[in-house]
Amino acid sequence: MKQISEELSAALAGEALTLCLCWRLTRADGLVIGVTEHDRALLVEGVTYEPGAAVEAGRFTQSAGLKPGRGAAGGVLSAQAITEADLDAGLWDGCRVDVYRVDWTAPELGSIPIWTGFLSEISRGATGAFEAELVSLKAELERPVGRVLQKRCDAVLGDERCGVVDVAGRTCDQRFETCQNDFANTENYRGFPHMPGMDFVLAGPAAGRNDGGKR
């Protein structure tokens, strides 16, 4: 848990609150951008938060259990911090978002953590604005790890994992027989065709030769 300085605690206890939201956006490529709802730039703990409504204040929820908390944010694509080209290139997908409250009269006092999560789904409107769904760090607990064991192939015909080059006018139903007979590509088959099915798992012992363990 982050410790709040005594000076900032005293400012919070005062009658006149001069707080604003600051957002630190950290992309997967390492780029860090700070934006604030305040009308001037704020230097907080080594990060400069620029004004300009690049991101507007949203709503944040947390859950008591392992269910991910949710949030929402909005902004303007013309802002220098978040460009339409970068959004189209997917550079903001999965971006980490740290939201803080800061005393804009004394940003050197530090910040108060409000919410931490990731950008999940980003959509754009006809007016040039964008909306982003946010999920908390708990969403990482729901991320699938590893592969699903299934009889059919999970590769896409013609992709790197499949390896088939000539795909013009051809389709694949992901069955082992199709991979073997139509494409001669069983060495790249990404399924488990010989995996026992539920009938095998649920089948009981054979009745004809069941001797109760006697020899």
List the helices and strands and how they pair.
Layout: H1 6-13, E1 19-26, E2 32-36, E3 42-44, E4 47-50, E5 55-56, E6 70-76, H2 84-88, E7 96-103, E8 112-124, E9 129-136, H3 176-181, H4 198-202
Parallel strand pairs: 2-4
Antiparallel strand pairs: 1-2, 1-7, 3-4, 5-6, 6-9, 7-8, 8-9
What does this structure look like?
11% of the residues lie in helices and 27% in strands. By secondary structure, the protein is α+β, with helices and mostly antiparallel strands. The chain folds into 2 domains: 6-141, Pnp Oxidase, Chain A, CATH 2.30.110; 148-203, no CATH class. The chain has a 9-stranded mixed sheet, with no helix packed on it. Strand 3 (42-44) and strand 4 (47-50) form a beta hairpin. The termini are far apart.
The dominant shape is: elongated
H and E string: HEEEEEEHEEEHH
The CATH class of the largest domain turns out to be Mainly Beta
Say what the CATH topology of the largest domain is: Pnp Oxidase, Chain A
Biggest sheet architecture:
9 strands, mixed
Distinct helical segment count: 4
Mean pLDDT: 75
Beta-strand fraction estimate: 25-35%
Through-space gap between termini = 65 Å
Order of strands, main sheet, comes to 3-4-2-1-7-8-9-6-5
Second rung of CATH, namely the architecture of the largest domain: Roll
**Rg value:** 27 Å
